[in-house]
Design goal:
Prim-pol fold, 5-stranded antiparallel sheet
């Protein structure tokens, strides 16, 4: 169909085949000028074609496809790109999208296809605004190609090329593109383009925009060589190329974390290494008597140290010893702040993408069943979990040395409950013991996760640590220094792979997340799981969720699943009950006078020598606070637990030891002046009467 439309469609790489996968899998330069002949095309896509079953394919833009070019709007990562387009449409087309072929990319942006008007040659340029042009000699993926995110490229409904065709670009679009590109001053392939924004790590090494930096470095060095001696080199300036490579290798860093492996080897695996460098060097030398000569006639730039922002604007780097240094932090004005991307959700309104959080509860509460269910749903590309949309799916790494022999039964129960075969989903278990406090173990974990990337061609979406205590052997969970190291290891996993990391942890005696307050401060989400011993029904409580409402509670039940094997094994499956989710920030509490009575009751119990406790084990000796509150004031135990937790958080109550000899602990009132039905109005003062 694409060929019938006169488009030069060629087979393309798959994400798992190459880090730089948005490329044709064949040598394509020879196909830039005209539509390929039938024999060549049939060799690719005919009845016995070599690539007939390959999902990924792409378009060579420009002359080969009848002067088709593509306006690429990365609206997913650059909101200002869509604002640029919307402003144009509002001014010239009453805000209505142009009636021409338009696709949604696998990364979430859009690509609009146009024919170039006579006399205008569309360039192939990139900009840091998220607006790219694919024109002469360019390439764009086509539906139904698979993106590394696991999402297919797809034509927008009613904007398929066979429905609405490909229109000639209006003059105002051409003028807007020309004006946009006129702002930028990079020389590549003889055309003016802007360098994409460069990102540097904490040591000033470039981790994003590396290919662009390579191009400018090579171009600048070749131009400098021409200025030194205009005679065409016979040896290809191989020594100079090696020296230029050393500068590149010093200033850039691979995104692959693999301690012990040289940087240049990792760069080569990413398609940003010596092979590409040599190719670009030859390409620059091939223009020795044309573009290089023209550039050399311009005044040489002043040698200086440059920041990444300045380096983006330099036409070349004629001084091969110029260094890149991050001398200032980025400053955002109000408009820049408003242009920042919105928070992204992995599981809608509960688990953020690229975040750190914890699911915690008492032993036997059901937290591991919930954690495993979330992980399996993400790996299995399920649309929802417990009624909440899953926005990203992909590989999952599950770290658990606890109950490993039982996990296969839990997975089988999940399969039977949801009617899913999980055999082929990208779910990977690490069952050896890992010490997150040891650098060598953390590095080994990163290499292991990177192996998942190599196997699947995708970055992991979700990493679960079940349980946190198992990866902290010998550490003091209450010691801020130790837990800061653990959080740092989790952040390293999160930042290296862009994944959400979720720890499964236990509660303290007070019923809160066990360990240092570092956990609470670092977490983007905290989900508390509670269930009375022997009860089928439990509660999932959202204690903390950044960027969304928290404080709500949802009931769940642990359903026993018959696995149907010869041994008659069973396992549990965590699922929500039919009861609606409590969406409010705080459930319905009793009146303020009743709240004050409850606080007085807690104080009286303390002075009587038998303090009430919020720990469920206190039920055995009759000191369980939630039971007393339920029996005396008719408050649901779930609501009572939330009230106690809020009062502990706000400094109204504390858990303290009443008797050092018996080690009896319980709830003690700290602030008698508190209006218990609301938040504290002001701190208590000893001068208050």
């Amino acid at each position: 169909m694409y060929r019938e439309l006169g488009l030069q469609v060629v087979p393309a790489k798959l994400p798992r085949e190459d880090k730089a996968w948005k490329r044709p899998i064949i040598k394509w330069r020879e196909y830039e000028g005209r539509l390929t002949d039938d024999d060549t095309f049939n060799g690719w896509y005919g009845p016995a074609g070599e690539f007939r079953g390959r999902e990924n394919m792409g378009l060579i833009t420009g002359a080969a496809s009848g002067n088709v070019w593509v306006l690429d709007i990365d609206s997913h990562n650059h909101p200002q790109a869509m604002k640029w387009l919307e402003a144009l449409l509002e001014e010239w087309n009453d805000g209505v999208p142009l009636r021409t072929a338009t696709q949604r990319t696998g990364g979430g942006g859009i690509q609009i296809f146009f024919l170039a008007p006579e006399g205008w040659v569309p360039p192939t340029n990139k900009t840091s605004k998220g607006i790219d042009i694919r024109g002469a000699g360019g390439f764009a993926m086509l539906p139904p190609s698979m993106h590394e995110s696991g999402v297919n490229y797809a034509w927008i409904k009613s904007y398929e090329p066979w429905v609405c065709g490909i229109m000639e670009a209006p003059s105002w679009i051409v003028e807007a593109v020309d004006e946009l590109l006129s702002q930028f001053t990079k020389v590549e392939r003889g055309e003016r383009t802007e360098s994409p924004a460069q990102a540097v790590d904490n040591f000033g090494m470039i981790v994003d925009g590396r290919e662009d930096y390579m191009t400018r470095l090579i171009w600048g060095r070749v131009v400098a060589l021409y200025r030194e001696c205009p005679f065409e080199p016979l040896d290809g300036h191989q020594n100079e190329m090696r020296e230029a490579w050393k500068v590149y290798d010093v200033n850039v860093k691979s995104r692959i974390f693999e301690p012990g492996t040289p940087n240049h080897v990792l760069l080569e695996r990413e398609g940003r290494g010596p092979s590409l460098f040599a190719q670009k060097w030859e390409q620059a030398l091939s223009q020795w008597n044309t573009k290089v000569k023209e550039a050399a006639a311009l005044p040489a730039p002043e040698k200086k140290l440059v920041s990444p922002q300045e380096a983006q604007q330099d036409e070349d780097l004629s001084d091969p010893n110029a260094s890149i240094m991050d001398d200032v932090f980025e400053l955002l004005d109000i408009m820049g702040i408003k242009s920042l991307p919105d928070p992204e959700w992995l599981v809608q309104k509960i688990i953020m993408a690229r975040a750190l959080g914890f699911i915690y509860g008492t032993p036997g509460a059901g937290k591991s069943f919930i954690a495993l269910g979330i992980a399996l749903c993400i790996a299995a590309q399920q649309k929802t979990w417990w009624g909440r949309n899953i926005n990203y799916t992909g590989p999952v790494v599950y770290i658990s040395s606890e109950g490993v022999s039982d996990i296969k039964f839990r997975i089988r129960a999940w399969e039977l409950a949801l009617g899913i075969n999980a055999d082929e989903i990208p779910f990977y278990l690490i069952h050896q013991t890992i010490n997150f406090m040891k650098e060598e173990d953390t590095n080994k974990l990163l290499r292991t996760i990177n192996k998942v990337v190599d196997m699947t061609g995708q970055m992991p979406v979700y990493v679960t640590v079940d349980t946190v205590s198992r990866v902290l052997p010998g550490a003091d969970e209450n010691l801020q220094k130790d837990m800061t190291l653990f959080i740092g290891a989790c952040d390293l996993v999160k930042e290296t792979f862009g994944a959400t990391v979720c720890g499964v942890h236990h509660t303290s005696r007070q019923g809160n997340l066990r360990g240092s307050t570092v956990f609470d401060g670092a977490a983007d989400f905290l989900l508390s799981v509670s269930r009375e011993e022997g009860q089928e029904i439990g509660q999932l409580h959202a204690k903390k969720i950044k960027a969304a409402e928290d404080g709500w509670t949802q009931n769940f039940k642990l359903r026993k699943i018959e696995l149907g094997d010869i041994a008659g094994n069973t396992s549990l499956f965590a699922e929500p009950t039919d009861e609606e989710i409590v969406e409010e920030g705080k459930p319905e509490w009793p009146s303020k006078p009743v709240c004050q009575e409850i606080v007085n009751g807690i104080r009286d119990a303390w002075h009587s020598g038998r303090p009430w406790s919020n720990h469920h084990h206190a039920r055995k000796d009759g000191r369980y606070a939630m039971h007393h509150i339920n029996q005396r004031w008719g408050v649901d135990e779930r609501i009572a637990a939330q009230m106690i937790e809020a009062w502990l958080t706000n400094g109204i109550l504390e858990v303290s030891t009443l008797d050092a000899h018996t080690k009896m602990r319980g709830l003690r009132v700290l602030n008698n002046l508190y209006d218990a039905g609301s938040m504290p109005r002001r701190p208590w003062n000893e001068n208050d009467d």
